[in-house]
Amino acid sequence: MSSAQSTSYITGGERYKDITFRLKVAGVPSDKHEIVPELPKVLEKIKQLPTQHVYVLATYTAVLQLRKLLADQGYIKEGMGQ
Fold first, then answer.
1. Pairwise CA distance, residues 35 & 11, whole Å
2. Do the Cβ atoms of 12 and 37 come closer than 8 Å?
3. Integer Cα distance of 41 and 80 in angstroms
4. What pTM, to 2 d.p., does this model score?
C-alpha cells in the first residue's frame, strides 16, 4: 500500500455490533472506523470514498441485501451468478 492510500473501515447492517467488536479487538483505531447501522447508508458512504476499490466482508444475509441494493441502483445485475 502506498503512503497516499488510507485504510478506513465502515460497519453496518444487521450484525454491525458483532463486526464492530471484532475490529476493536483486532486493534483497528477508532479514528479509522465509522459505524453506520443502516445498510443503504453504508452504500452511500462507500460511494463517497476516494477510491475505486473497496473490500466488503459480509455475512451471507448481508451479501444478499447488499446485492439487492446494488442491483436496484444499476451497479450489478440482480441475482447470484448472473
1. 5
2. yes
3. 23
4. 0.76
DSSP letters spanning 59-79: -HHHHHHHHHHHHHTTSS-SS
Taking only the tens place, the pLDDT of each residue in 17-68 is 999 999 999 999 999 999 999 999 999 999 898 888 888 888 888 889 999 9
Query: Which pairing describes strands 33-35 and 9-11: parallel, antiparallel, or unpaired?
Result: parallel
Q: Give per-residue burial for 30-63: e unless 16+ CB within 10 Å, then b.
A: eeeeeebeebeebbeeeeeeeeeeeeeebeeebe
- Find out whether 51 and 61 touch, Cβ atoms under 8 Å: no
> Would you state the cell numbers that stand for residue 64, as one nine-digit string?
444478499
Residue 65, classed as helix, strand or coil, is helix
